[in-house]
Amino acid sequence: MPKCFLETICVERTMTVDQWIDLSAGLDLDGQEFYYGFPGITDLVTCERYRQRVEAQGRTIPMFCCAPDFTRPDAAERKAEAEKQKPLLRAAAALGAKYQRVLSGQWRPNVSRADGLRWAKECILDLLPAAEANGVTLIIENHYKDTLWQFPEFAQRMDLFVELVESIPPTPWFGVNYDPSNAIIAGDDPIAVLEAVKHRVVTMHASDRYFEGGSIEDLRKQDVNATTGYAPFLKHGVIGRGLNDYDRIFSILKSVGFRGWISIEDGPDPATGYQDIADSTVFLRAKMREHGLV
C-alpha cells in the first residue's frame, strides 16, 4: 500500500499510477494494494490496463482500499455514499482485486453510538449483493481516520468495532482487515482486538508504530477530544521495529488457519517510504515463514 506516495499520486499528481507500478516492481512483493483516490480508477478500461501492467510484472492486485463514510446523519446522503461504492466494486473486479475495504464512517459530534452502528450496518448489508455479484469481499478495518476526513473513525475503539463486526452475519462476502497499529492509536491492545475478531480476519494491514516524545498514556489523553489527526509523537516505522508483537500476532492468525494477504502500510514520508517498504518486506517474509503463513 503506497501510503508514502498517496499525496504525490492523488493530490500533487507528480507521480502516475503507472510510475508507481513500475517503481514497485523493484520490491520483493507478490501484489499491490490499490487506492480509491488513484486518478481514473473508476474507468474500467483503465483498471484493466493497470491489471495487465501489474500481471506482466508477475504480480497481482489483490486488495482495493476505499473509505466510505456511512455515518452521515442524512439518510439520502448515506444512500448516496453506499451507491458510490458500487462502481468501485466494479473497478475492483476489473483490477482483479478480491477484497475491497469499507469503513464505518466519521464519528461526528452529533452521531450517537446506536445510530452510528445501525447506519454503518445498514450500508454494509446494502452493499453485500453488489459485492457478491462482482466476486469481491468487503473487508472492514479497525481504522483510525481517513486522510480527507474531518473526524476520526466512528468504530475506531475496540468495543464499537467488535460490535459492528458481530452485527454482520457470517458470509463469504464480508470479513475483517486487521491493522495492529490502528489499535495502538485508539488506545487499545492490538492483541485483544485480534483475539476478538480473529475468526473473521481475511486480510491484514501490516504496519508498525513507535513513540517519539510521548507515551500510550499521552495518546489516550489526547484521544478523548482528538478530531483532527494522528498524534505527532506516534511515528510510522519499519515493520518489526515498533510496538507491535508480530510473533504473537502471527501465532494467533496461524491458529485460526489464516492464509490471506498481508499488505505493507508504510509511513507517509516519500523520502524514506520506498526503503521502509523494502526493509519491512524482508522482516515480514522471514516472520511469515517462521509462523507457517506462506
Describe this structure in words.
- This protein is an alpha/beta fold and 294 residues long.
- The chain has a single domain (3-290), classed as Divalent-metal-dependent TIM barrel enzymes (TIM Barrel).
- 46% of the residues lie in helices and 14% in strands.
- It has helices at 6-12, 17-24, 44-56, 75-95, 113-134, 158-167, 180-185, 190-197, 216-223, 246-255, 270-290; strands at residues 31-35, 60-65, 99-102, 137-141, 174-178, 201-206, 209-211, 234-236, 262-264.
- The strands form 2 sheets. It has a 7-stranded parallel beta sheet with strand order 1-2-3-4-5-6-9. The chain has a two-stranded antiparallel ribbon with strand order 7-8.
- The protein is globular.
- Mean pLDDT is 91; it is low at 223-229.
Summary of the model, kept short:
This protein has 294 residues and is an alpha/beta fold.
Beta-strand segment tally: 9
Mean pLDDT reading: 91
Form type: globular
Low-confidence stretches: 223-229
Q: SSE order, as H and E?
A: HHEHEHEHEHEHHEEHEHEH
CATH architecture: Alpha-Beta Barrel
Strand content: 5-15%
CATH topology (fold) name: TIM Barrel
The order of strands across the largest sheet is 1-2-3-4-5-6-9
Number of spatially distinct domains: 1
Intertermini distance: 19 Å
**Sheet with the most strands?**
7 strands, parallel
Number of alpha- plus pi-helical segments: 11
SS content category: alpha/beta
The level of helicity is 40-55%
Rg, please? 18 Å
The CATH homologous superfamily corresponds to: Divalent-metal-dependent TIM barrel enzymes
- The first-level CATH class is given as Alpha Beta
